Amino acid sequence: MVAPVRRPNPRLSNLEAPDNPGELRKQKKTVQIYDTTLRDGSQGEGISLTVPDKLKLAQRLDEFGAHYIEGGWPGSNPKDESFFAQCKGLDNAKLVAFGSTRYKGTTCEHDKNVQALMKADTPVVTLVGKAWDHQVSVVLEATLDENLAMISDTVAFFKRKGREVMLDAEHFYDGYKASPAYALSCLHAAVKAGVDVLVLCDTNGGTLPWEIDEITRVVVAEFPTVRIGIHCHNDMELAVSNTIAAVHAGATLVQGTINGFGERTGNANLMSIVPTLQLKMGHDCVGDRLQQLTDLSRYTDEITNQPHVPNRPYVGASSFAHKGGLHVAAVLKDENTYQHIDPVLVGNERRILVSELSGRRNILTKAEELGLHPADESKDGVEWNVRVKAVLEQVKELENKGYSFEGAEASLELMLRRTVHGYRPPFELLDFSVSTDNKRVVYGNVLNATPNNESVTQASVKLALLGPEDGGDQCPTKICFEIAEGNGPVDAVNGALQKCLLPVYAPLRSVSLVDYKVRILDNASGTAAITRVMVEFEESSNGKRWTTVYAHPNIIVASVNALMDGFEVAMWDQLPQCIING
Q1: 67 three-class SS
Q2: What is the DSSP secondary-structure string of 74-135?
Q3: Kind plus residue range of the DSSP H or E element containing 516
Q4: Residue 24 pLDDT level (bands cut at 50, 70, 90)
Q5: Number of domains in the chain
Q6: What digits encode the pLDDT tens for the residues 89-115?
Q7: Which of 153, 554, 560, 578 is the most buried (most CB within 10 A)?
Q8: What are phi and psi of 280, to 5 degrees?
């Protein structure tokens, strides 16, 4: 396979180019990354982190190169207090405890939340303080002057204790639009008390990028010796754009979460912000550790029990996936034609998809990736072209029936392998049957139930197996008939198949089903609709996963075929030569 041309990408930052104007070089700066996944991210619907989860994520963020990791609000719940007690020894990042300014009418020495922040014993404290006069009056029910005193007193208290202090100026942009003078006076109160960083918050997520740019420039000019940060929410899907705008206007610290997790519609997504700042704007964020980006995103999905979103920028499985035949042909000649960066820079990979939109080049590339193109066979030869054309026509025909190979590349690989001259399937299904004892449910009660009130599904399979005999070169056919019971027809068939296969192919013991998805393709047909089944498998010894697909009007037939294909995929590495070569 000819490697695609790698030319300098004109879309990447060229701030270091020798012929670049000196002014552009001056704009390059270190932008510090402040992660708040463990606090703000955990406030997203459906996300709950245990203390061990938070400790693991903190470790990964530290390895990634985050400058600050916000661990939680120690005064709000025992979980966060436990986390701070256990989280010790970060190598790169500074651990941050989050809390509010003192309550009105009291002192820092007598405020329980302030004292909980002290007890957390972190080198950095982030204080949230109101910067919108409307919020001060309605939410805090305090006077404007009292709010300024609350900010000043709390910042000064922690500075006396030797802490690095940040002020999250809550609702700052809304507050500035309502009353510029008061919003700025909140910042002045913090600066006079010794604050280290002023973080401007678009708490409601309703500010536009040009407003962020204009207002941030005012603050940067007003406080030239203080670091300015930005904290955006994604209510208009502008959190990333607004964060980039703030950095362009002079901010040098960005707050956000992994994968944009957070309350309502989420926070600014660091998985999009960090590579954009580093690759497009030339700023220094995490250096070469940027290649950990995709792994960090997917690890966080796993630990938070969230699905991988394939179309996430930079880190999604589809971020660098090419499907259209013309696009594939172009990107194989020069990867910059339909990719804005090299996916390796963020730890991702280019993928060539095969579907009904594919061209010959898609099939060729996929076969070469899988090592299925014989070295002595020209890819421009007649036989190779016939094979590719046959596979392409089969893909288009099957996708027209409801298949989807984009999410089930193992089925496509199986299709390609079956075109290899002499390949023999390791087993063939001769017959199968499934039965479930009939029970009638009346108002939640099962009539004629088994002793445990569970229905029993039984499946039988008859297979023709090809396998080596006593280590020889021959592959005689063996007939196997097995019966198994299971929790439903798919589980029962799976059990019966394994009873036949495991004695011949022992490595299958480490293969398990990890996901099973069913989709009705034509709802208008009702009970006669075609059903598409996708089954995901995992090899426990190496963590490898693969997915197969089958579509059929009978859901059990679709499931059985997807299962068999999945097992055939699992057996490739163990197939004897008599099967591979015929």
Answers
A1: coil
A2: TTT-HHHHHHHHH----SSPEEEEEEEPPPTTS-GGG-HHHHHHHHH--SEEEEEEE--HHH
A3: strand 511-520
A4: very low
A5: 3
A6: 899 999 999 999 999 999 999 999 999
A7: 560
A8: -95, -35
Please write the tens of the pLDDT for every residue from 162-203.
999 999 999 999 999 999 999 999 999 999 999 999 999 999
**C-alpha dist (Å) from residue 55 to 48, 58, 70, 97, 249:** 13, 5, 12, 14, 34
Is the residue at 168 inside a domain?
yes
Residue 153 belongs to domain with CATH number = 3.20.20.70
Cβ pair 114, 156 in contact under 8 A: no
Among 442, 413, 418, 438, CA closest to 428: 418
Distance CA 447, CA 460 (A): 25
CB-based contact 317:353 (threshold 8 Å): no
Residue with tokens 């059929």: 552
Is residue 18 assigned to a domain? no
Instruction: Decide if 269 is inside a domain.
Output: yes
Q: Is 324 helix (H, G, I), strand (E, B) or coil?
A: coil
Query: 255 with 370, same domain?
Result: no
Q: Which residue has the tokens 């997917």?
A: 298
CA proximity to 202, closest of 167, 229, 176, 171:
171
Specify the DSSP class assigned to residue 49: -
**Whether residue 408 has pLDDT greater than 80:** no
Given a cut of 70, whether residue 54 has pLDDT beyond it is: yes
Residues 333 and 450 grouped into a single domain: no
Token pair belonging to 61: 């963020």
Q: Which CATH number goes with the domain that contains 458?
A: 3.30.160.270
Phi, psi of 476 (to 5 degrees): -70, 155
Looking at the whole model, is its pTM more than 0.85?
A: no
How many whole angstroms separate alpha carbon 489 and alpha carbon 497?
A: 12
532 token code pair: 């598409």
Residue 314 within any structural domain of the chain: no
* Cβ pair 142, 150 in contact under 8 A: yes
Q: Copy the structure tokens of residue 527.
A: 């009970």
| Three-class SS state of 262 | coil
Residue position matching structure tokens 């996430």: 312
**What is d(CA 348, CA 341) in angstroms, rounded to the nearest whole number?**
11
Pair 268, 371 in one domain: no
End-to-end CA distance of the chain: 27
